[in-house]
């Protein structure tokens, strides 16, 4: 039962990303070409509300469902890993038209060739794990 | 019902994505889809090769459950909540992509020129998917997050590292879209 709420959030997320067309390769292309406001509107309004509510959560010390204080771990300091890793991710995002959430959602929409992308993403993750100590972070 | 079946505008979708993130935070977790790649490698035994995969993956089952839900959500949205309308892309996008050899622009979520089995099962087609997936997986774990973890959650939590990562996403995405895609798909 304790997993049911996560299943429901996942279902909700999958529906929203399909209905918003954020899972569409075409929308990603259009975003990177600055030819439509659509994706910027989605990300911008999500972040605007996110900032507002995370601030409210912290200010009023809202407790999570488990009764603990809400505590979003700060990201580790650094520049190299974020700019280099981010750029590599950007290459893949613009080529596949899908980031790690949409990859799974698109399988659900019936695009089974996406399993190849997911498999390759797992390989990329594995290779990162092997090289982690040798890369600048 | 008509409004649900049509594509949802950004000012509906964006807030609902924020809601997704906030629900996970309220549940004591965080919104980060790419962590699941690390978890799946760990389940597959990658811990034998690197410390990066040596952790208690069972603590991440909640996130795999979100993934399972997302797959189901994708199915529900396309089977029951869509009227099959084409994606309302800008006319510029459509004509550019036509020139690059994409013929059914916006008629479905993904271009058959990349994702149809006919194209996937060619040397070029499979290379595109494998290279794209590899870059996404490697890059997102190197950067410590993807669109959900950095662009939505990290920026919402005013994290400078997430802003740097998102700038990186755009450097890579812009180079790919402006300079490399025309080389791959152009005549």
Structure characterization notes:
The complex is a heterodimer of chains A (137) and B (187). Chain A is mainly alpha-helical. In chain A, 66% of the residues lie in helices and 0% in strands. Chain A has six helices and no strands. Chain A has helices spanning 4-19, 25-32, 38-59, 80-96, 100-108, 114-131. With 187 residues, chain B is mostly helical. The model of chain B has no long low-confidence stretch (mean pLDDT 96). The interface between A and B is large, with 113 and 126 residues.
- What about the largest sheet of chain A? none
Class derived from helix and strand content of chain B = mainly alpha
Helix and strand element order of chain A: HHHHHH
What is the percent of helical residues of chain B? 55-70%
End-to-end C-alpha gap of chain A: 40 Å
Strand-helix topology:
The complex is a heterodimer of chains A (137) and B (187).
Chain A: H1 4-19, H2 25-32, H3 38-59, H4 80-96, H5 100-108, H6 114-131
Helix pairs in contact in A: 1-5, 2-4, 5-6
Chain B: H1 2-5, H2 10-26, H3 35-43, H4 61-80, H5 91-99, H6 112-115, H7 117-120, H8 123-143, H9 147-156, H10 160-185
Helix pairs in contact in B: 9-10
Subcellular location (chain B): Cell inner membrane
Transmembrane segments (chain B): 12-28, 62-81, 125-143, 163-185
Protein name (chain B): YeeE/YedE family protein
For this entry, give a set of tags.
heterodimer; A: mainly alpha; B: 187 residues; mainly alpha; 10 helices; cell membrane (chain B); cell inner membrane (chain B)
Brief sketch in words of this structure:
Chain A: This is YeeE/YedE family protein. The complex is a heterodimer of chains A (137) and B (187). Chain A has 137 residues and is mostly helical.
């Amino acid at each position: 039962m304790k997993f049911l709420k996560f299943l429901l959030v996942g279902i909700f997320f999958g529906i929203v990303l399909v209905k918003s067309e954020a899972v569409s390769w075409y929308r990603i292309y259009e975003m990177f070409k600055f030819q439509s406001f659509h994706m910027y509107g989605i990300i911008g309004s999500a972040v605007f509300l996110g900032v507002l509510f995370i601030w409210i959560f912290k200010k009023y010390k809202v407790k999570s469902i488990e009764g603990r204080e809400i505590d979003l771990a700060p990201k580790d300091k650094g520049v190299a890993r974020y700019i280099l890793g981010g750029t590599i991710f950007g290459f893949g995002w613009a080529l596949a038209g899908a980031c790690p959430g949409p990859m799974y959602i698109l399988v659900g929409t019936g695009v089974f060739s996406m399993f190849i992308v997911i498999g390759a993403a797992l390989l990329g993750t594995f290779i990162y794990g092997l090289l982690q100590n040798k890369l600048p972070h | 019902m008509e409004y649900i079946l049509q594509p949802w505008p950004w000012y509906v979708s964006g807030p609902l994505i924020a809601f997704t993130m906030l629900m996970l935070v309220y549940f004591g977790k965080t919104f980060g889809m790419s962590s699941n790649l690390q978890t799946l490698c760990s389940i597959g035994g990658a811990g034998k090769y690197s410390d990066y995969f040596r952790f208690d993956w069972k603590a991440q089952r909640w996130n795999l459950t979100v993934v399972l839900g997302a797959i189901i959500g994708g199915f529900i949205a396309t089977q029951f909540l869509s009227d099959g309308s084409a994606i309302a892309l800008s006319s510029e996008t459509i004509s550019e992509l036509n020139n690059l050899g994409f013929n059914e622009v916006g008629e479905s979520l993904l271009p058959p020129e990349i994702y149809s089995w006919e194209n996937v099962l060619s040397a070029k087609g499979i290379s595109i998917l494998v290279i794209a997936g590899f870059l996404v997986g490697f890059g997102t774990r190197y950067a410590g997050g993807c669109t959900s973890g950095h662009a939505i959650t990290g920026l919402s939590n005013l994290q400078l590292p997430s802003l740097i990562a998102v700038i990186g996403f755009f450097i890579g995405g812009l180079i790919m879209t402006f300079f490399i895609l025309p080389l791959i798909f152009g005549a």
